């Protein structure tokens, strides 16, 4: 069975899924930001600016296997994902973890 997995979105859900799946599959994580943002620390970061950098975790350290592509998915289909840049990532499986917005 082919094991190429594209995970779209590197928030809490996508980062956890990518890290777990990378143990057994060829994972590509697609995320526009260059670092995971630990949102739960945002309020402390606002009132304690010298601590603010603590809520950012660069994606380069996330996966021991697989890769992280900095970009935004424009469309997905059964064969993979196409980024806004035009880059194409072929995948056998997709994980859509793009979160939601409060409004
Ligand atoms: C300020 C703040 C504080 C919070 N504090 C808490 C707390 O204390 N406790 C708690 O339980 N919850 C808290 N939350 C809520 C929590 O952050 C969310 O429930 C959680 O982030 C949802 O995780 P997720 O993985 O579903 O989505 P997200 O974490 O939103 O991740 C989605 C990711 O997808 C990426 N993405 C979106 N579109 C695309 C695309 N087209 N292509 C590629 N990537 C894309 C985004 O850049 C993002 O990184 C807080 C939220 C905020 C904003």
Structure, explained:
- The chain is of the alpha/beta class and about 100 residues long.
- The protein has a single domain, classed as FAD/NAD(P)-binding domain (3-Layer(bba) Sandwich).
- The protein has two helices and nine strands; from the N terminus they run βαββαββββββ.
- The protein has helices at about 10-20, 40-45; strands at about 5-10, 25-30, 35, 55-60, 65-70, 75, 80-85, 90, 95.
- It has a four-stranded parallel beta sheet with strand order 5-2-1-9, covered by helices on one side.
- The longest helix is centred in the N-terminal third of the chain and has 10 residues, at about 10-20.
- The termini are far apart.
In summary, what is this structure?
This protein has 2 helices and 9 strands, in the order βαββαββββββ. With about 100 residues, it is α/β, with parallel strands linked by helices. It has helices at about 10-20, 40-45, and strands at about 5-10, 25-30, 35, 55-60, 65-70, 75, 80-85, 90, 95.
Walk me through the topology.
Layout: E1 4-8, H1 12-21, E2 26-31, E3 35-37, H2 42-47, E4 56-58, E5 67-70, E6 73-77, E7 80-83, E8 88-90, E9 93-96
Parallel strand pairs: 1-2, 1-9, 2-5
Antiparallel strand pairs: 3-4, 6-7, 7-8
This protein binds flavin-adenine dinucleotide.
Average pLDDT reading: 95
- What is the CATH H-level superfamily? FAD/NAD(P)-binding domain
- Largest pleated sheet: 4 strands, parallel
Strand content: 35-45%
Second-tier CATH architecture: 3-Layer(bba) Sandwich
SS class: alpha/beta
What's the CATH topology label? FAD/NAD(P)-binding domain
Number of structurally distinct domains: 1
Number of strands: 9
Which hetero ligands occur in this complex?
A: flavin-adenine dinucleotide
Return residue spans where pLDDT drops below 50 for at least 5 consecutive residues: none
Strand line-up in the sheet with most strands: 5-2-1-9
How many helical stretches? 2
Distance between the termini: 40 Å
Name the helix and strand elements from N-terminus to C-terminus, one letter apiece.
EHEEHEEEEEE
Q: What is the CATH level 1 assignment?
A: Alpha Beta
Radius of gyration over C-alpha positions, nearest whole angstrom? 15 Å
Helix content: 10-25%
């Amino acid at each position: 069975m082919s094991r190429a997995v594209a995970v779209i979105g590197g928030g809490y859900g996508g980062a956890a899924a990518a890290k777990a799946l990378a143990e057994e599959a060829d994972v590509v994580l697609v995320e526009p930001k260059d670092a995971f943002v630990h949102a739960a620390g945002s309020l402390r970061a606002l009132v304690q600016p010298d601590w603010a950098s603590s809520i950012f975790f660069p994606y380069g350290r996330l996966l021991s296997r697989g890769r992280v592509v900095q970009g935004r998915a424009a469309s997905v289909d059964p064969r993979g994902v196409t980024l806004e840049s035009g880059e194409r990532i072929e995948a056998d499986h997709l994980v859509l973890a793009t979160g939601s917005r409060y409004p």
